Amino acid sequence: MPPTPLVELHDVSKSYAEGDAVRDVLSSVHVSLYPGEFVVLLGRSGSGKSTLLNLISGIDLPSRGTVRIEGREMVALSEHERTLMRRERIGFIFQAFNLLPTLTVEENILLPLELNGRAGPQSRERVRELLDTVGLGNRADSFPDRLSGGEQQRVAVARALSHAPPLLLADEPTGNLDEQTGRKVLDLLEGLTRRENACALVVTHEPGLVSRADRVLALEAGRLVEREKRA
User: Fold this and answer.
1) CATH fold group of domain 7-227
2) Torsions phi, psi for 160 (to 5 deg)
3) What is the pTM for the complete model shown?
4) What is the separation of C-alpha 51 from the centre of its chain, rounded to a whole number of angstroms?
5) Higher-confidence residue: 165 or 178?
6) Burial 168-195 (b: 16+ CB within 10 A, else e)
7) What is the pLDDT of residue 190?
8) Alpha-carbon dihedral of residues 136, 197, 166, 164, nearest 10 degrees?
């Protein structure tokens, strides 16, 4: 039996009204993503990469077509149901980190678990394990403004994985980092994704990232194409 897709997009298009004009961002996108895959999404600035992530996560809805996560059609869900879907089943890593400055590192990572009603001794143990894995076991009580950019991004990766979501979306996760730090964050992101058997879709401008991917997708003129992976 073929594997069941975790994410399915069928004939997805997205347009925005700009004054009297309509701007087409995505056009007839078809793609399926599967558990255990590490998928890279390439595309120029403004090509619609972030729009695609927003549609997959239910932050935005398509102008046409269907988006399904674990068989559930996002358009058919209420806004509250989509929020719960993101909270419980999706981990999101933002380029700008989006850590809460008034919470410690440990509290930031624990937050998704608390929102899902899973706070407790076992949750705190998982947070500590993640902190050790990302090399920040001694920074649990630090606040984000005391961390370097690379350290903050490592916290963001741990936070996205804290509630063990089956789907991980990363929007330019190394965009604010130097090359060496960015490489370490990608090593961490790929390693944790595979360890958790999650599906990761990583948006990037970096063609060099393709060697890590199981599949390489690219947005070209609003359409999603699959590129041949090259070493």
Assistant:
1) Rossmann fold (3.40.50)
2) -65, -30
3) 0.90
4) 12
5) 165
6) bbbbbbbeebeeebbebbbebbbebbee
7) 86
8) -30
Q: How confident is the model at residue 177, as a pLDDT?
A: 77
Token couple for 187: 């090593």
**Quick check: 50 and 94 in contact, CB under 8 A?**
no
Report the DSSP pairing between strands 199-203 and 38-42. parallel
Residue 199, pLDDT score: 94
Structure tokens at 33: 């993503």
Q: Which of 89, 77, 75 is nearest to 168 (CA)?
A: 89
Q: What is the 3-state secondary structure (H, E, C) of the chain?
A: CCCCCCEEEEEEEEEEEECCEEEEEEEEEEEEECCCCEEEEECCCCCCHHHHHHHHHCCCCCCEEEEEECCEEHHHCCHHHHHHHHHHHEEEECCCCCCCCCCCHHHHHHHHHHHCCCCCHHHHHHHHHHHHHCCCCCCCCCCHHHCCHHHHHHHHHHHHHCCCCCEEEEECCCCCCCHHHHHHHHHHHHHHHHHCCCEEEEECCCHHHHHHCCEEEEEECCEEEEECCCC
